[in-house]
Amino acid sequence: MNYTDIGKLILIIKYKNYGVCLSYLLDYFHMSSSSFYFKTRLFFVVETIKAKPKQKRFVGFSYTINGQIVEDERIKKIIISIYSNNNPNDPTFYFKSLGDKKLSVVFKNQLGIIVNHKKIYRLRKELGFVRAYRNHFKHPKKRPNNHEIDAPNRFWEGDIKFIPTTKDGFVPILDIIDAFDKTIVSSQIGHSSKSKDFIKAVYNGISYRKADPKKLIIRTDNGPQFKSKATKSFMDEMEITHEFGYKNNPNSQAFIESHHSSLEREFVQLNSFENIEDVFQAYNAYMFFYHNLRPHGSLNYMTPSEFSRIFSDDNNCFNSKTIFVKK
């Protein structure tokens, strides 16, 4: 028996409404599923073939790493306690600055509770703790050559972030970050940031990390403290390779710019500072949070201290990890 396409569609829809399996009908009438749906929309308006919207089902609980049940109400109380912490000198104060995926890791590592990041988002939204999304300006991209970094103390980036205070004006924080393990190897806080401060920060970082300066590349922007004769003499004496990024292009110092972007969201926007002493105390707490509590997406949601410890214990675990750095 031969059927036209419309005849086939009518019979398939008819028997489907009787409860016959659609895949069986399509096979019997030699019609592909894509043809069935396309021709149905082309020739008919059939409400019965439209998928019914699925009702979202929320379980209402999660589990601990030991298999115990944790009700959502308890998770809500924990989230409320995180957002109720108003002491910027407490490292856990900065948990409120994290997104849902990183909070999910915090719940597992710090509290032993396994919570999906989607649930954390839903609960935060119910409690009114979800921030409005802001569109970000995209900087023009440039395509220079790459460095391949497969170990710590090979490539550092340095830059200055200014923190507003009510009495001392804008306080500069000079940070130097290791691109491989995201450790802040050195920081300088003062009323000003000059070449001597940058030299001291680099020297302290090398001493702290026990780095070989001859194998080290440090990239900065074109600020006067980085281009001074004193800085050049120090770099030449230590045999450090000093690179400069492109002007007006933060992408060429992507690692330190990313850190300072996070610093703006997680540190500056959560605090108000009266003087430089307030900045110093709060930043010490934030640095402890950053290195020991804050999961990093680029480190497979480990903290920098955890990543560094695992890397030093078993270097073979990260033989495949290579950081590509754009000049």
Give a quick set of tags describing it.
elongated, alpha+beta, 12 helices, 327 residues, three-stranded antiparallel beta sheet
Provide a compact summary of the structure:
The protein has 327 residues and is of the alpha+beta class. Helices cover 42% and strands 15% of the residues.
Describe the structure in your own words.
The chain has 327 residues and is an alpha+beta fold. It has 3 domains: 5-49; 65-127, no CATH class; 146-326, Nucleotidyltransferase, domain 5 (2-Layer Sandwich), CATH 3.30.420. It contains 12 helices and 10 strands. Helix 5 packs across helix 6 (117-127). The protein starts with a helix and ends with a strand. Mean pLDDT is 85; it is low at 139-144.
What's the arrangement of secondary structure elements?
Layout lengths: L4 H13 L4 H7 L4 H11 L17 E4 L4 E3 H13 L15 H12 L1 E2 L2 H11 L18 E4 L5 E10 L5 E9 L5 E6 L5 H15 L7 E4 L3 H4 L1 H10 L2 E4 L9 H15 L7 H17 L11 H10 L9 E4 L1
Parallel strand pairs: 5-8, 8-9
Antiparallel strand pairs: 1-2, 1-3, 4-10, 5-6, 6-7
